[in-house]
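hiii so um. not sure if this is the right channel but i have a protein structure encoded as tokens and i wanna go backwards to a sequence. like what aa goes where. can anyone help
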């Protein structure tokens, strides 16, 4: 089993703008992500990793939104 924290895409135990950057870099094809990273990146629950997930992470980081686990 692999346990992931929603929004913690880079696996450092925290949800920060760095996680948002991982999503954007993967989305445009600069980096590849693992299955676990894709799972933690899908913060809006639509089954895809998109810039919308990146935006949600940034909004949660500054306190505008809450990401439910």
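sure thing!! here u go:
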């Amino acid at each position: 089993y692999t346990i992931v924290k929603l929004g913690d895409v880079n696996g450092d135990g925290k949800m920060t703008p760095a996680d948002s950057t991982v999503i954007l870099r993967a989305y445009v094809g600069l980096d590849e992500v693992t299955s676990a990273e894709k799972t933690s990146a899908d913060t809006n629950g639509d089954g895809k990793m998109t810039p919308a997930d990146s935006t949600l992470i940034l909004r949660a980081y500054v306190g505008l939104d809450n990401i439910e686990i």
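oh and Residues 44 and 53 are 6 Å apart (CA to CA).
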